[in-house]
Amino acid sequence: MYIIGIAGGTGSGKTTVARKIIESLPKKAVALIPQDSYYNDTTNLTPAERQKINFDHPSAFDWELLAKQIKDLKEGKAIEQPTYSYLVSNRLPETIHVEPCEVIVIEGIMALWSPELRNLMDLKIFVDTDADERLIRNIQRDTVERGRTAQMVIDRYLSVLKPMHQEFIEPTKQYADLIIPMGGANKEAIEIVRSHILQKISNKQ
After folding, report:
1. CA 51, CA 89: separation in Å to the nearest integer?
2. Which residues contact 177 (CB under 8 A, 6 or more apart)?
């Protein structure tokens, strides 16, 4: 099994990079584990309390469950991956059944933050995109998918996203084996990663 971590700021294009890498590999050879699925279970909190959670801080994630499930996959055990809704700021009852496969891709803003998680990875990638571009993408996404106004997104960016990125996300770039600028638009970098992965999994067969 070959485990890849893909990190980067919100709106950096890391999800697109992960998707394009997955699409370039043989079907059923790869599984995606989104870090967003591992936000803490907030069932015990009121809706008002959930709205106060800083989802861009490491404390918002269930690191123990994420590491355990990656270890289970590595040991050949299937997992029930949690699912999460931004609309209710909580986990959903549904889970996603994930079988062990040749390649596991862990994708999320802080995929490279946890030392325990990094130690499970064979390849660590950081998607690096200009801050202005990330802000524009956040406005486009959140106004359409999360019911926020442009001003709400800008206010949140200045008060939460930008300082959290500088404190917790940007520093994880030092742990990356590969830094991909321009996100999903960087076809050459994605092709290099694809060729590297195929070589690694073919050597293990």
Report:
1. 7
2. 123, 124, 125
pLDDT for residue 204 = 65
Closest CA to 126 of 33, 77, 189: 189
Q: What percent of the chain stands above pLDDT 70?
A: 99
Question: Is this structure's pTM higher than 0.85?
Answer: yes
CA pair distance 134, 16, nearest whole angstrom: 13
Question: What is the C-alpha to C-alpha distance for residues 27 and 103, in angstroms, rounded to an integer?
Answer: 11
Distance CA 97, CA 152 (A): 35
Q: Where are the alpha helices (DSSP H) in 79-186?
A: 115-118, 131-145, 150-156, 162-164
How many of the other CB atoms lie within 10 Å of CB of 3? 18
Model confidence at 69, in pLDDT bands (50, 70, 90)? Answer: very high
Which of the residue ranges 61-70, 138-147, 160-169 has the most confident prediction, judged by mean pLDDT? Answer: 61-70
Contacts of 98 (CB under 8 A, 6+ apart): 31, 33, 69, 73, 78, 79, 80, 81
pLDDT at 205 over 60: no
**What's the first-to-final CA gap in the chain, in angstroms?**
10
CA distance 77 to 100: 6
